What we know:
By secondary structure, the chain is mainly alpha-helical. The chain has helices at 2-23, 29-53, 56-93. It is elongated.
Amino acid sequence: MVLYIIAISIIIGSWYLFSKRIKKKKSTLIFSLIMVGVPVFFHIFGMVYSSIVHNQSIGFTSAYLMSVLYINSLIMLIVHYSLGMKRRKGKRGS
């Protein structure tokens, strides 16, 4: 349950900060690239937690949630590049 709460808070917090950076018109590339590395650290934390609790299913849960967080970070990268293409198109058209 702890891993689910952490994963949900990472997803909500990352999209909140991502949208905040977009509204301030700051670059989101570095933030998106950092978010690609977050699932790896989440999985490492999950495996350590699994070994402390001596429960193998927590390890599988952290692996599943790692893939969810990785897909989330890839979606952020896609949004970043699509916004960049939109901005470039807007500058050319004016």
